[in-house]
Amino acid sequence: MEKETRYLTFALTKGRLAKKTMELFEQIGISCEEMKDPDSRKLIFVNEELKLRFFLAKGPDVPTYVEYGAADIGVVGRDTIQEEGRKIHEVLDLGFGKCRMCVCGPESARQRLNGQELIRVATKYPGIAKDYFYNRKNQTVEIIKLNGSIELAPIVGLAEVIVDIVETGSTLRENGLVVLEEICELSARVVVNPVSMRMENERITGLLSRLNDVITQEG
Amino acid sequence: MQKILHTPEGVRDIYSTECEQKLILQEKLHNVIRSFGYHDIETPTFEYFDVFGRDIGTIPSRELFKFFDREGETLVLRPDFTPSIARAAAKYFLNEDMAVRLTYLGNTFINNSSYQGRLKETTQIGGELIGDDSADADAESIALTVQLLLASGLKDFQISIGHVGFFHALAAEAGLDEGLTAQLQELIANKNTFGVQKLLSDKEIPPAQKKAFSSFTGLFGTQEILAKARELTENAQALSALDRLQEIWDILCMYGVSKYVSFDLGMLSSYMYYTGITFRGYTFGTGDAVIKGGRYDRLLHCFGKDAPAVGFVAVVDELLSALSRQKITQEISCSHCMLLYEKDQLSEAVTKASSLRSQGIEVELVRITEDRTREKCRNYAKNCTLVVEL
């Protein structure tokens, strides 16, 4: 009952993550020449042979595209998946883009994390911060949403601590901040739309197991 | 400039062709359900909060539209029909020993978060088979939903069947507490194998059971996965859930619909009232299931009657958007006629219109005036299959 093959659509997170993802895809024989042209103004890139389409989106939008089936598969950081809390299947850890979600602040703030005192937490990830403090630490906090340079907040006195991604920790050190607690480990993940997972089961699981083979070999 | 009144976010007007398509689709679906012997029922649009409360286990309280009556009682716009039907069935069919089949059609309301592109008001048509705990009843509900989707014109779709008993038996055997079970359930429902492994990594659970939980996400596909699932456990309850699924599969083969059916043991609904099989219908062009259903043997007990039941619902709006994206349209009746007349021909026009209507033709009277000239009226009627000019 199979009719002509439908395009399988991928939503990739713009930037370094997309580049790494395409490198990995090339190892399993999926390439997209169109995407390599840095001057291209195209929004959608097509691989006619394999009937695949790719597009680039801002990180937080990738789960949205996947949830509504506008993309069948997405590649996005785990931080974004957790923050957005969408109904999507998180099926594979790609193993790159590794970092940690942490509570950071000046050393002096450490004791305030152990009390029942109401502290202010600045973050780009209010969902993750709220879940951590309310459900895992059982501490009532006031969350302040910021959009960048979160490290500033404790320095200028906007908040006692911050919740942010830590890769090497050098920005923290330069500003006299330290990691106080680790919330979770992060890396790039493959997410799949629940409907696509069922309707295109063979194609998608085939692709995932090939990706998994490459990752485990490297790992 | 004139101010235009907009509709609030999450609700919308449906008109013209789309509305016609929707009504025809609803009628087709209704006919299919009626053909399985279901009887119509209507329940109120809003009910007391308790009908949809936490004990019943529909959706989280914060996603309900709530308001108060004059006595200060909390009322809720129904987010889901099943509890309403269960309440009504417990009340009116309390003394029946025989099975009752009920079908309903109406709108449901869920106050989901903003800017996610989701409708807050959706039309649902569904049926509930109350007072029958057999696999026959389960299979009938599933076979019916296949017929529903076929009647809508869809060709490419899948009904996934799961059984909450399998997961719950394993969770109970491993001695997981309520919080952990809920977390695990969510991870498995999202097919997040790493999440499951991480969550269980520091828990004291025998390795065989850990392996069983992390294998859940792989347990979907054809009926062969039932055998695969059987190897994971020796728990009697879990095995009886698998026996049930096998039995349902055999009956679905009799119905001749097995090619539309697959199994997914990791499909765990957030609706807590399900106790046995659950199923969902998927097709292209929509991010969510178009059919949802399952068995809820304890729900009627909450309303005062012990009766097993199984039910399903087709989400008409999701189905309609899937159909339109797959370019499948319902046939619209083509007997629409426009009758153009001038002022002094009214009596002739009325007589003519009545005679046409009695022959089953839809007649729209169009009066020609100075502003609306014959030319303009002809133009207005140009897409009509039949035009009569006096």
Write down the Rg of chain B. 26 Å
CATH class label of the largest domain in chain B: Alpha Beta
Determine the structural class of chain A based on helices, strands and strand pairing. Answer: alpha/beta
Major β-sheet annotation of chain A: 6 strands, mixed
Fraction of residues in H or I helices of chain A? 25-40%
Residue-averaged pLDDT of chain A: 89
* Class by alpha and beta content of chain B: alpha/beta
Could you list the spans of chain B in which at least 5 consecutive residues all have pLDDT below 50? none
Task: Please give the number of β-strands of chain B.
Answer: 15
Could you outline the blueprint of secondary structure elements for this entry?
The complex is a heterodimer of chains A (219) and B (390).
Chain A: E1 8-13, H1 16-27, E2 44-47, E3 52-57, H2 61-67, E4 73-77, H3 78-84, E5 89-93, E6 99-105, E7 119-123, H4 126-136, E8 141-145, H5 152-156, E9 161-166, H6 170-174, E10 178-186, E11 188-192, H7 194-199, H8 201-218
Parallel strand pairs in A: 1-3, 1-4, 7-8, 7-9
Antiparallel strand pairs in A: 2-3, 4-11, 5-11, 6-9, 6-10
Chain B: H1 16-35, E1 39-40, E2 46-48, E3 66-68, E4 74-77, H2 82-92, E5 100-109, E6 121-130, H3 135-152, E7 157-163, H4 164-173, H5 178-189, H6 193-201, H7 207-215, E8 220-221, H8 224-230, H9 236-255, E9 261-264, E10 277-283, E11 291-295, E12 309-315, H10 316-325, E13 336-342, H11 346-358, E14 362-368, H12 374-380, E15 386-389
Parallel strand pairs in B: 1-5, 7-9, 13-14, 13-15
Antiparallel strand pairs in B: 2-4, 3-4, 5-6, 6-12, 7-10, 8-9, 10-11, 11-12
Helix pairs in contact in B: 1-3, 3-9, 4-9, 5-6, 6-7
Give short descriptive properties of this protein.
heterodimer; A: 219 residues; alpha/beta; D-Maltodextrin-Binding Protein, domain 2; 2 domains; six-stranded mixed β-sheet; five-stranded mixed β-sheet; 11 strands; elongated; B: 390 residues; BirA Bifunctional Protein, domain 2; Rossmann fold; nine-stranded mixed β-sheet; three-stranded antiparallel β-sheet; 15 strands
